[in-house]
Amino acid sequence: MPVLLITRSPSVHDSVVPLCAAAGVGAEVCAEPSLSLAAWREADLVLVGDDLTGALVGLAPPRRTGVHVVGVGVGDDAFRHAVELGAASVVDLPTGEGWLSDELSDVGERASPGRLVGVVGGAGGAGATTLACALAQWHAARASTLLVDGDPLGPGLDRLLGMEDLPGVRWEALAETAGRLGARALREGVPRRDHLGVLTWSGLRRRLDVATARRVLPAAVLGHDLVVVDLARQGGPLLAELVDRCDDLLVVTPATVPGLAAAARLVADLGRDDRAGLVLRPGGLSDADAERVTGLPVVAAVADQRGVAASVDRGLGPLAGRGPLARAARALLADAA
Q: How many CB atoms lie within 10 A of CB 220?
């Protein structure tokens, strides 16, 4: 049961139940405190009407998270009883309806956030976007995945995956909204094919600000098992913000003198980070050379794969069948896990 509402008050009932319906979560209403104890532990969220807090305190239910006291014009007793119940907050309706709606929007979501993997090109044309798409495609065959386009000058990740015609929200719409973004709302709102969602731009006027990224990424990782962010090499404060939120950072670069020199400059700008690793593309230098120049460990090497361009042109994305990209995606995500 997602929500347990314990109340006999018609005003509390008529305020809370429509909010649950609007959030798309089920609610069980219990008017008898003693009968509510059977569902006390199982509910994702417990809302106790201020009319029954005293009776519930007398039953001494076990402490748990996700308990809130709700009421219309709550009095001082509600706050005292909330402390005795271990409730996280007291919500005065209708003033607190906005906050309660936000809380309900994430009911039933994972208790802990998913993993956030950032992919950035150490040099231009290194294949970072291709790898980001491959990682997302590989994991989406197994669990809920979101591919986030963090490069305003990129080709558009939906186009690389053949998803540009799918309906859904893009960055522009999210940038125009304010307030908390629910994990379920984001997951169900973006263009999606099976377990793979993509968040990118819809037109040519592309802009992503730090404030929007700070609102969206927490909802993204709460609503998905894996979030892959394709990062822009020259993102300034935005790049720093996105990198700071990554659990793992993959720097893709060819094993060439120009490629490693550019990657070394990028790494120096970002700062040494234990979460970062090099993904090497073909070149004449060794793994040891790459590690010495950049200061990062080599975590994978991805050979050239035939047919990638044709696969993308057919709307299949870069990960079509077996090959170097699939092997690298499997190994990298296994290491990240």
A: 26
Q: In what order do the strands lie in the sheet with 192-193?
A: 192-193, 196-199, 145-150, 226-231, 115-121, 248-254, 276-281, 298-301
Residue 321 pLDDT more than 90? no
Question: 196 near 133, Cβ under 8 Å?
Answer: no
Question: DSSP letter string over 104-131?
Answer: HHTTTS-SS--EEEEEEESSTTSSHHHH
Q: Which residue range is the domain that position 188 belongs to?
A: 115-336
Peptide bond into 324 cis (omega under 30): no
Two tokens, residue 150: 């963090």
CATH number of the domain encompassing residue 83: 3.40.50.2300
pLDDT over threshold 90, residue 296: yes
Rounded to the nearest integer, the mean pLDDT of the chain is: 91
Examine the fold and report which residue of 47, 81, 105 is the final residue of a domain before the chain moves on: 105
Q: Do 138 and 278 belong to one domain? A: yes
**How far is the C-alpha of 315 from the C-alpha of 102, rounded, in Å?**
36
Regarding whether 265 and 136 lie in a shared domain, the answer is yes
Query: Measuring CA to CA, how many Å separate 99 from each of 102, 116, 179, 322?
Result: 5, 27, 10, 47
Separation CA 237–CA 144 (nearest Å): 29
* 310 in the same domain as 173: yes
Residue 337 has pLDDT above 90, yes or no: no
**Between β-strands 192-193 and 196-199, what pairing exists: parallel, antiparallel or unpaired?**
antiparallel
- Contacts of residue 111, Cβ cutoff 8 Å, sequence gap at least 6: none
Look-up of token digits 């935005």: 238
- Residue 189 falls within a domain, yes or no? yes
pLDDT computed for residue 130 by the predictor:
95
* pLDDT at residue 331, as a whole number: 93
Could you tell me if 77 and 127 lie in one domain?
no
Domain count along the chain = 2
* Integer angstrom CA distances of residue 220 from 109, 140, 152: 11, 14, 19
**pLDDT tens-digit readout, 99-150:** 898 888 878 776 668 999 999 999 989 999 999 999 999 999 999 999 999 9
- Is 97 in the same domain as 121? no
User: Are residues 229 and 200 located together in one domain of the fold?
Assistant: yes
